[in-house]
Write a structure and sequence with these properties.
The protein is of the alpha/beta class. It folds into two domains: 9-315, ABC transporter type 1, transmembrane domain (ABC transporter transmembrane region fold, Up-down Bundle), CATH 1.20.1560.10; 340-574, Rossmann fold, CATH 3.40.50.300. The protein is built from 20 helices and ten strands. The structure holds adenosine-5'-triphosphate. Adenosine-5'-triphosphate (ATP) binds at residues 110, 349, 353, 356, 374, 376-382.
Length: 583
């Protein structure tokens, strides 16, 4: 689980930028609470006055009212300042967490579940606020109240104080025992909330499939199971909190009885005045509230520390260097196409899986179209993942434009490459927002050019609001072929020196297939195209074909060469590729 257990340092890190507000809010809250301590003093004076058969002095009453009113005002202001600080802490934690998440390397994010990540940004950061507003401040105020009450009690009567302190020590020991249990249960509760997010995300990502499979009830049960675990851990927190609360309340009542007994005897023997005993008992009552407040504050801190440990797990992951000035403009002059070379590249995804690449060697010349073909699982997409440096090769050499890939800074490398994934993700938003994702400052001419290149002009003309039409979540309003061409247009807008195109495996209709072939042919005149080809029509037009199987390169050549020399290729060609058998 987490290394933050028992460590307060991360909390202090979050607090540091807000220490001015914390000091102000803390001081105001404290002033508000301490003003309450004036009440028993007033009671003492009043009882003494009654004893002397006179009424308490008016000025004293007036002063007490003023002190209490000022205290109430200070308390309210303090609360506001602290809540404000809490919001500031949550904002900063969320911003930093999102910043870190988006800079994580792909290999890290592949391990994590999006729903769980989401719950860390939303739910865990919210718990963090409670640590500072209710947790730390309430605890510190409670400690001051406790100390204040104890000092006042010491002034009243030493022996009675001893009785009280004895009980306080007992309560302290008990709280010390219970807190780690509350922390553990809080961590588990937050983990379950994360699991719930992950389970829900799983369903929402494949909503149609879940519906079509009639699997709604099973998925509901899975999400509800995680919710149930969160509830159970929450109940455990409530149990331990109420154990501590009840025990400390009982201890306070016991002390009250003991003080009444011992104090009564001391009053009878003349060692103590009745007024002092009354004030002492009132202070004793004052102790109950801060003890409960301290308990609640410490419980909040436990929950916050649990949340913080989950936030730190992400913050501790390595971050990638991203482009300092964001994605570059796109009206930049087209840089020359680049070539790529793989030499004896070895790579495995780890986790006990067999290597995905064994001594993979091939060269892609600058310009033109090179097609990667091979059965499913042959390692074709892995070539792209290594070229984009989503993962690092483990052996051999990869060079881009004659330079070792490790000498390229990742953002520099990615700026030179255009990457179109197989399922051509289209993001929620307008068509224009999707196109300019990698090139936010693209001019209308540049957008028009890629629309023409990718044969999307007709689509744009058909859409109700043209480029500013919403494409829906994951681009549901577009067809598969349109999504693919939007993804290609997006990649081209950045004027890549090498276009990595993972062709859709889904069947495209004849028109879309023809369009795609035309697009690839035209694009290859201005950049290198490396395409993972799943259809014969794409392969037939390629300048070079690399045949992969089982993580190795089997053969390289043109369509005509390979038909004559490679059995696997001939077999793939005979089945038009789409029905390729697994590796
Ligand atoms: N992120 C990943 N984590 C673990 N293993 C992976 C990952 N991606 C791919 N693999 C495994 O690596 C091997 C090569 O996969 P790769 O995606 O490169 O094949 P492919 O030739 O592109 O297949 P397809 O044509 O079906 O997309 C496969 O055995 C696959 O299961």
């Amino acid at each position: 689980m987490s290394r933050a257990h028992g460590s307060w340092r991360p909390l202090l890190d979050h607090l540091r930028p807000h220490r001015g507000l914390l000091a102000l809010g803390g001081a105001l809250t404290l002033a508000g609470s301490l003003a309450g301590l004036a009440m028993p003093l007033l009671a003492k004076t009043a009882v003494e006055a009654f004893g002397a058969q006179r009424s308490p002095a008016g000025p004293l009453l007036g002063l007490t009212v003023v002190v209490l009113a000022a205290g109430a005002l200070a308390g309210a202001l303090g609360r506001y300042v602290l809540e404000r600080m809490g919001e500031g802490i949550v904002y900063r934690a969320r911003r930093d967490l999102v910043d870190r998440m988006l800079r994580l390397p792909v290999c890290e994010v592949d391990r994590l579940k999006p729903g769980d990540l989401l719950s860390r940004v939303t739910s865990d950061t919210t718990l963090l606020r409670a640590v500072f507003t209710d947790g730390i401040v309430e605890s510190v105020t409670a400690v001051f109240m406790l100390v204040g009450a104890v000092v006042m009690m010491a002034l009243m009567d030493g022996p009675l104080l001893l009785v009280t302190v004895g009980v306080l020590v007992l309560v302290g020991g008990l709280v010390g025992l219970v807190m780690p249990r509350i922390r553990r249960a809080s961590v588990q509760a937050q983990e379950s909330v994360g699991e719930m997010g992950a389970a829900l995300d799983r369903v929402l990502q494949a909503f149609r499939t879940v519906k079509a499979a009639g699997a709604e009830q099973r998925e509901i049960d899975a999400v509800a199971g995680a919710a149930r675990r969160a509830r159970d851990r929450g109940v455990a927190v409530a149990w331990w909190t109420s154990v501590a609360g009840t025990a400390s309340w009982g201890a306070a009542q016991l002390t009250f009885v003991a003080v009444l007994g011992v104090g009564g005897a001391r009053v009878a023997s003349g060692a103590l005045q009745v007024s002092s005993l009354v004030a002492f008992l009132l202070y004793l009552f004052y102790l109950v509230a801060p003890i409960a407040q301290l308990l609640q504050g410490l419980t909040r801190v436990q929950g916050g520390l649990a949340a913080l440990s989950r936030i730190r797990e992400i913050e501790d992951l390595p971050a990638e260097e991203t482009s300092p000035a964001g994605p570059g403009g796109t009206d930049r002059v087209q840089a020359a196409p680049v070539g790529v070379r793989f030499e004896n590249v070895a790579f495995g995804y780890g986790g006990g899986r067999p290597p995905a690449h064994h001594e993979v060697s091939f060269a892609v010349p600058a310009g033109g179209v090179t097609a990667l073909v091979g059965p499913s699982g042959a390692g074709k997409s892995t070539v792209f993942a290594l070229l984009e440096r989503f993962y690092e090769r483990q052996g051999g050499e990869i060079s881009v434009d004659g330079r070792d890939i490790r000498q390229w800074r990742p953002f520099e490398l990615r700026a030179a490459l255009g990457y179109v994934e197989q399922d051509a993700p289209v993001l929620d938003g307008t068509l224009r927002q999707n196109l300019v994702l990698a090139a936010p400052h693209a001019s209308d001419e540049a957008i028009g050019r890629v629309l023409r290149l990718t044969r999307l002009e007709e689509l744009v003309a058909r859409l109700p609001a043209g480029l500013d039409s919403e494409v829906g979540h994951r681009g549901v309003t577009l067809s598969g072929g349109e999504r693919q061409r939007v993804a290609i247009a997006r990649a081209l807008l950045r004027r890549p020196r090498l276009l990595l195109l993972d062709e859709a495996t889904s069947q495209l209709d004849a028109v879309n297939e023809l369009l795609l072939r035309e697009v690839i042919a035209e694009v290859s005149s201005e950049t290198t195209v490396l395409v993972i080809a799943h259809r014969l029509s794409t392969v037939a037009g390629a300048d070079q074909i690399v045949v992969m199987e089982g993580g190795r390169v089997r053969a390289t050549g043109t369509h005509a060469d390979l038909l004559g020399t490679d059995d696997l290729y001939r077999e793939l060609a005979a089945t038009q590729f789409l029905a390729a058998r697994p590796a």
